[in-house]
Structure formats: structure tokens, C-alpha cells
Amino acid sequence: MKILLVEDDRSIAAMLYMTLTAHRYAVDLASDGQLALELLMQWDYDLILLDILIPKLDGISLCRQLRSLGNQTPILMLTAQNSNENVIIGLDAGADDYIIKPFNPNQLLARIRALLRRGNNATATVLSWGDLCLDPTLMKVTYKQQEITFRPKEYTLLELFLRHQERIFSRNAIIDRLWSSDQLPSEAAVTTLIKDLRSRLKAAGINQKAIETVHGLGYRLKAAPKMQVQETKGEKETVLLRSPTSLLKSRLPGYESESEVGDLPEIMLVSEDAVQERFRLSLEQRMRVLEEIEVALQTQELSPKQQEYGREEAHKLVGGLGTFGYPKGSEIARSIEHLLKNNSLLKERQTTRFSQLLADLKQEIALPPTPSNQELCSNSLVLAMVGDAAFTKIRSQEAARWGLRIEVADRSTVLHRLTQTTPEVILLALDGDGADNPLTLLQTLKADYPTIPIVILSGKDSLEERVAVARLGVEQYLSPPVTSTQVFEALIQALPPLPTIEPLETKVMVVDDDPVMLDTLAQMLRSQGFEVICLAQPDRFWALFTTTHPAALLLDLEMPTYNGLELCRVVRQDPRYSQLPILVVTAHTDNESMRRAYAVGANDVLGKPVVEAELVTRIISRSKPLSQAVELDLNYLTNNDKTYPGD
Amino acid sequence: MTKHILVIDDEADIRDVIQMSLEGFGGWQVMQGESGSEGLLKAKTKPFDAIILDISMPEMDGFECFEQLQADLQTQMIPVILLTAKALPSDRRRFATMGVAGVIIKPFNSRQVWKQVAEILGWNI
């Protein structure tokens, strides 16, 4: 454990230094705030003991600066005045605790131990590993109740491993934590120390190797004898890696180094396994956070803060799981993230859903990871069949800004390429090069790969062609002149939608001047897990609508000031909302009223009294991607009356 | 000339994987930043050839961090690649217009991500 002592009074500093080192802490001393900040930028400390009144940069400002930089090291303030105000300012600036001078050394040590416990999210006062126990208060180590004696450095190293079980420490990291900055032993000293500690543990009767060498990374305490960490299977590969420390020892006062400032640390060997292993451990920690949320949900003690924390952890799982060979797990984590994203706390139904998702996720990660697929790149693949002229502008570098990747094929090779790779969207130029009917290839693609959306880049703008490709179910049609930005816009619009967003996080806005009806509709929707925004005054509609961004609108037709038809028209006029599902609720379901509602752009008309099941079904079905709805309409046209615009 | 790349992401696993891929396969040198604010400080410590920046971070997100990099004469010329989870069309539109060199969508292939970086930046490999 390494402590930074920031104190300008020599006598107090000397007394504290003696006390702390006597209790096996490594101590660095800074006599002013500026020096303290420099040291903190270069070294990791387990705790900062900070006098408030110090020169150059006072303790309070130092606290603020550290916290704003995201540094979370525990801070214990030393304050001379028994002034509440100073203490409050200090705590608000980010300090964790304070102690008033003059203080009893034992009380100081107890507070330090308490803060160090807090920093590790552990509450245990005694650190244990199987039958091995270390009591920091008594500085005593026992194995199966038998005391073991250690030399001071061996003791502090063991304490370090016990405090951060599962963590890998490089030799450099061990040096940083066990020795103060004015003593810089060689890495060989660490190797020797590890050897000594191992033999001491072995002599005490611990049969298995408690401290293992993680090839190329450092050392770690093995999982405690009763726990099983799952081995990850994967092909082993050793690559060169630099140790990710960026210590610039040469900048330390009184330290002369031959290396230039800013030199990167030494190269070492690291295996992919080690990174995999580290991921495994962080995965277990993240799962624990989600498990705690599950418990809190069941006991109805989930706080918004905990829910938000869980959402962040789930978000990290989305990225991490995919990268480490769990694509399906990544999707489940995404659903969990969505579930926790709600502004309101989860309700009973969502609690069940959460538990189910968590169970699925556990099942998923219990399996070995799938080796990374053949896809070279995670960005959405666009397979482009374009003549030359129209499209040479589009280059991979521009595509990358849109999160896309373009692979060019030509007519003769495209079908073969499709057997080897699955693009998320196909870009096809119809420039009628005279070879054969350009639509033939399109028909083949649509027949063999119906799920891959297609964007057509036309060489002309003909209604006949538009209709022909529309009938084949093409998603987007671009006619000249067209800019590369327009092409990318069309491509991202055509991409398959993200995995289904669950209905329970769909935000629905209900507008009805009748408070009873408003309440009834809101109840129905909330019971089905929708988030509901209620509005009883239509004249406030636009302001609320544009700030809350609902995913669907439910409008009462008969209202004072503005009626449902007028609101519907206003929404449809704005291109941003051209695809928003709008349902109109009315007591008048005669053909004329229905026709008027559809004419202004409503997607659906519901008769009063509203039936809950029907309301929900209609909202969900209307929230489907538009392309599917268009496809249905086209089928309807071609199968029934064989007419289409332009006939 | 060895390329120097700064990776800013609050997730240690992701930083490590990127570092491993870029150093191990690409032969470049990587420095890590574990938050937006730390990344901004480190970005000035040497003339980086590229910055890989995660969008979703607590406190200072990638958007804000990018703005600050752009606002500083010392760092505004460094090409930035964004890291993001699968994005909606509206997000993609925003990325495309903010002036970054490119976007890498998570989850990425840990063995191949260095190639993606090289391709976006037009580096010969």
C-alpha cells in the first residue's frame, strides 16, 4: 500500500512518515500542492493524506483538480482548525474523510484502513484467500489458524495481492506500490521477492502455487482454492506488447535517468490469453453488478442511481462481449441496456423480463467463446456493383466516416462473392450497359437473398424503372445527379434496423382533452410496459411533442382548439416525422370519418371504447419498419388489382 | 517512422485489445487514456499520428472530447477515429458530419482492428 503524504510542516510530516512506514506503508512526501499533483500524474497511490493548508496549490483546489481529472484515489484530509466550514468544503471538493489535528495515531491508522477497504469495494476487515487470512489491523497472517511470519516487504506484497485478488501486477506496478519513489529497485528484486514469498507460503503448508506468473504480464494471486475460474479456449498466439504503464520517472525530483522524457516503456511479450483472461475477470465483475440489480429489483430497493450504473455496465458488455467472441451475448446485453434505460424505474413485468435476460446471458457466457469470425471488419459491409464513372467518388475512406465499408464487385463475380460474405446492404448501379436486362441481376438477388436490402443507383430517372424496381421490393432508388453524401444517406437508411427494440421501452404520447379517457388509455399502455406521455391541452402539443420524441402518437379526434386531424397534418408536414406511427381514436367510425383520418396521414383509426389488447397490437404492428409495410402494400397491389401508378 | 496512437476509452479490456492488435500486428506504439479528460492531457504529450476515441464514456463523452481536441491548436490536426456500438442512422449521420477520420463499430474483430485503423487513415501496411 502506497500513500502520498502532502504536508508542509516538517515535524508533522516526520511524525506521520514514521508512523506510516512502521505500519508497512510505502510513503512519498510532497511539501506543496504543485509537487503533489506532479507526483499524482506519474504514480498510482492507494491513498492521499492531505493537509488543507499547503503552499502553491491548496488542498481543496488539489482535491477538485484530481476529481475533475477522474482520479478516484481516496483522500483523507488533515485539518488544523476545528472549523466545520473547512471540512464541508473539503468533502464537497471530493475528499473522502477528514481528521482533526492533533490526532491519535491509532485513530489515523484506523481511518486509513477504512478508506482502503472502501476503495476496494470490500467490507471485510480481514483479507482472506481460502484458509489464508491477513489482518491489516494486527499485521498478522495465519494459515489454518497457524501464524506465519513474513519479512516486511513480503508482507506488503502479500497484502497487495490479497487486496486486489484477480488483478495482475507487472513488476513495475509492484515496484510502484511497495517502494517509495526515492527507492527504485531493479525488476530482479521483485522476482526475488516473489520467489521468497512463494517459498514462505509453501513452507506454511499451502501446497498449490498461490501466486502465479501470467506470462508476459506479471503476477497474480490464483483464484482461491474453492473457486473455479473458467479456462478460455482459444488459439494461442504471442504478440509483442508494451507494458501500458507510462511512468516518466525521469521527471521525478532527484531522479536522474538516461532515457528521454516520454520514452515508451520496455517491450515485453504478452499472449492473447492474458487479455482474454483479464476480460473474463471484468466480465465476472460486471455480471455481479447485474445480479445485484436483480436482487434489488426483487426486494423493490433499486435506486435510480444503481439502475443507471447497471445500464452503463450493460452498455460496456455490448461492446466487450462481441469483441471477445460472444456476439449473441452482446445482443442480450443490448436488451438489458435498453431495459435499464427507462427514465422510470422498472415495474413488475419488466423485472421478470430482466431476470430472464440475465439468465440467458449467464447461459451464453458459460459457453466457450466462438473464435472470431472471418469478417475482417465490424463496420457494415456494402457490396457495391457500380460501373466506373458514377461511383469512383466513393472511397473507402469516406465510407468509414459513416461506419460503412465498401467492397466492390462486378456483375460476373457478385453471386460468387455472396456465397462467401453477407453484406448488410447491396448497392447496385443500373446503367443499362446494354449487355442484358439490368433488372435480371436484380431479380436474381432479390430471389436468392431476399433479406439483404438493395439501393439502386440509376443512370436515368424513369418512372417505368422506378416502378419496376419498386415491384421487386427495392429499398432505395437514387437518380442522377447524385452526390456521394446522398448515396451514403440512402445506404444507412437501408441498413437493417438494430435488433428489435422491446415494446416496453416504446414511448407513446397520448393527446386527449377528456381527462378520464386520457387516464384510461395511459393505464392500458403502462400496464403493457409502454412509457406514456399524457397531454390534455392540444395547444401545448408541438412544444411537448418536439421535446419528448415519442415513438408513436395516439390522438383523440374530437378536441377543442386543435382537433386530432389538424395535429396529424402538422406532424406529417415535417419530414422528420413522416414515418412516425399515428393512431387516431374516435367515437365516429363511419367511413367518411375514417377516410378523413387516413387522408391527413393517420396510420390507423381506433373506435371507442378502446379494447386494451387491440390498442397494444395496433401500436406494436404500426411501429414496424416502414419497408415491411411498403412490401405488404405492394404485394396487395400486385396480387389484387394488378395496377400500379404509371399504368 | 513508427506511428504513435492514443487510445481513449474508459474500458480497460477494450483498450488492451486495441493496444495488442495495434502494437502486436501493426507494429505501432500505443498510449492509453482512460477518460476524456485524461485523454486530452495525454494528447499533448507527443505528436500522435492518430487518436482512437470511444463515444460512450462517463463524465466527458467522446463528442465533447473531440470538440476539445478540435479547439486546441496542439491537437486539432490529429486524425480521430471514433469507437461506437452499433449505431442508428441518425448517429451515423452525426459521425459523418463532425469531421472525424472514420468510425469503427463495436464489437470489432480483435485481430483485425489494426487493419481497419490503417485503412481509415490510408497507412501502408
Automatic annotation (TrEMBL), chain A:
Domain (OmpR/PhoB-type) ranges: 124-223
Residues modified as Phosphohistidine: H315
A GO cellular component entry from the record: cytosol
Endpoints of the signal sequence: none
Segments of the chain annotated as binding DNA: 124-223
HPt domain sequence ranges: 271-375
Domain Response regulatory, first and last residues per copy: 2-116, 381-495, 507-623
Coiled-coil spans in chain: none
CDD domains: REC, REC_OmpR, trans_reg_C
GO BP, sorted A to Z: regulation of DNA-templated transcription
Pfam families, per the entry: Hpt, Response_reg, Trans_reg_C
Keywords of the record: DNA-binding, Phosphoprotein, Transcription, Transcription regulation, Two-component regulatory system
Family annotation (SMART domains): REC, Trans_reg_C
Residues recorded as bearing 4-aspartylphosphate in the entry: D51, D556
GO molecular function, one term: phosphorelay response regulator activity
Gene3D superfamilies listed in its UniProt record: 3.40.50.2300, 6.10.250.690, HPT domain, Winged helix-like DNA-binding domain superfamily/Winged helix DNA-binding domain
InterPro entries given in the database record: CheY-like_superfamily, HPT_dom_sf, OmpR/PhoB-type_DNA-bd, Sig_transdc_His_kin_Hpt_dom, Sig_transdc_resp-reg_receiver, WalR-like, WH-like_DNA-bd_sf
PANTHER family: OMPR SUBFAMILY, REGULATOR OF RPOS
Protein name: Response regulator
Biological source species: Aerosakkonema funiforme FACHB-1375
TrEMBL record, chain B:
UniProt protein name: Response regulator
PROSITE patterns per record: RESPONSE_REGULATORY (PS50110)
Pfam families: Response_reg
Originating species: Aerosakkonema funiforme FACHB-1375
GO biological process: phosphorelay signal transduction system
Modified residues (4-aspartylphosphate): D54
Response regulatory domain sequence ranges: 4-121
InterPro entries according to UniProt: Bact_response_regulator (IPR050595), CheY-like_superfamily (IPR011006), Sig_transdc_resp-reg_receiver (IPR001789)
Keyword terms of this UniProt record: Phosphoprotein
